């Protein structure tokens, strides 16, 4: 495994961001910056054995100011939404930032996506460990939370993300990554011809603000039944008629994954390139976001700004607003307890 390290530009405050690129023997590569832990590029072979960059992103850190849609970034302390930013932790009422139409989203006004992480690269292992300590009270979350995220790239074109965190007080922790995938290639257009499969019998019903109501709805007979591969464009034909699709303006929902432990939970395929991506995780949910409101300001790596549905997200996670629903998986990280979770994106040609 070869590792290259280079400047990725300067932040508005003058600090320098660094880009780390790991390249395997096939020539496939992943590029990650220590700013926001952002996945910048992921190049894997297509059916003609040419490399295709399957991630949306920018050529310089300046493209991420502002980071429209949390492009490629690490998300925390809590991924996804919390209703009105209100919840109780250890008997205390927390009022978190209302940074998304009156609700709390992706860690608040300045979440982990906007931090400069401390990098520890390992060229031999093909891995990059990023560390960040979130002080007690940051974004009004209790406890000092020490976080480590390790990206690993393998010779068989698999990208693993291992998350670890520990707090000295009871707090909330739900870490994820907000990569936008387009297996036809970054800048190639929309993802409507992709097929998707998600191993989930139920999904979390949401209201008009995309806040879970607490109901776990069976997918049977709906456009949310992705247990067999479905062309995304065919599913989105219901966006103006299905009440849940109207709420999300398309797919923007948490799927309650079947099974437990590290297992394969999803598959994505592009007929244009033959690239298939499978997702393994030990998390209980995955947010499938079909990029409905994606609207870039700066030109992406392809030289033009991104538009709606040019990429999609599969964010492995705990259920959104879990802290406010007793029937959802536990959302509290107890003091001294180790938070650990792993997600693996595997790539092959079909």
Keywords:
single chain, about 350 residues, mainly beta, Beta-galactosidase, Chain A, domain 5, 9-stranded antiparallel β-sheet, 2 helices, 27 strands, about 40% strand
Largest sheet, spatial ordering of strands: 11-12-13-14-27-23-22-17-20
Helix share, percent = under 10%
Please state the CA-atom Rg, rounded to the nearest Å. 19 Å
Assess the beta-strand content as a share of residues: 35-45%
Largest sheet: 9 strands, antiparallel
Number of helices: 2
CATH class: Mainly Beta
Encode the helix/strand succession as letters: EEEEEEEEEEEEEEEEEEEEHHEEEEEEE
Question: Do you know the CATH architecture?
Answer: Distorted Sandwich
Number of beta-strand segments = 27
CATH topology: Beta-galactosidase, Chain A, domain 5
Overall structural domain count: 1
Classify the secondary structure makeup into a structural class: mainly beta
Can you tell me the residue ranges where pLDDT is under 50 for at least 5 consecutive residues?
none
Distance between the termini: 25 Å
Give the overall shape: globular
Say what oligomer this is.
single chain
Average per-residue pLDDT, rounded, comes to 97
């Amino acid at each position: 495994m070869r590792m290259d390290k280079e400047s990725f530009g300067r932040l508005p405050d003058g600090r320098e961001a660094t880009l780390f690129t790991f390249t395997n023997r096939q020539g496939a590569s992943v590029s990650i910056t220590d700013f926001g832990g952002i996945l910048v590029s992921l190049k894997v072979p297509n059916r003609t054995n040419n490399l295709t960059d399957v991630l949306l992103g920018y050529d310089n850190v300046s493209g991420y100011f502002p980071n429209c849609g949390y492009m490629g970034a690490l998300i925390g302390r809590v991924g996804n939404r919390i209703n009105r930013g209100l919840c109780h932790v250890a008997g205390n009422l927390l009022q978190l930032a209302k940074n998304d139409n009156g609700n709390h989203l992706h860690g608040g006004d300045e979440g982990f996506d906007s931090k400069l992480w401390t990098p520890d690269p390992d060229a031999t292992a093909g891995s990059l460990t990023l560390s960040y300590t979130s002080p007690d009270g940051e974004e009004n979350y209790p406890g000092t939370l020490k976080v480590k995220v390790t990206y690993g790239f393998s010779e068989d074109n698999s990208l693993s993300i291992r998350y670890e965190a520990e707090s000295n007080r009871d707090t909330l922790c739900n870490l994820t990554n907000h990569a936008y995938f387009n297996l036809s290639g970054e800048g190639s257009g929309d993802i409507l011809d992709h097929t998707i499969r998600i191993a989930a019998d139920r999904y979390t019903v949401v209201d008009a603000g995309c806040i879970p109501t607490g109901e776990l709805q069976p997918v049977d007979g709906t456009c949310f039944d992705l247990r067999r591969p479905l062309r995304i464009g065919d599913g989105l034909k219901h966006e103006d008629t299905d009440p849940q699709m109207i709420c999300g303006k398309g797919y923007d929902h948490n799927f309650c994954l079947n099974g437990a432990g590290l297992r394969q939970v999803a598959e994505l395929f592009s007929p244009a390139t033959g690239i298939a991506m499978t997702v393994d995780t030990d998390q209980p949910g995955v947010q499938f976001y079909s990029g409905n409101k994606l609207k870039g300001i700066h030109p992406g790596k392809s030289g033009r700004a991104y538009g709606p549905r040019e990429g999609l997200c599969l964010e492995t996670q705990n259920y959104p607003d879990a802290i406010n629903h007793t029937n959802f998986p536990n959302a509290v990280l107890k003091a001294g307890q180790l938070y650990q979770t792993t997600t693996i994106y595997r790539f092959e040609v079909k």
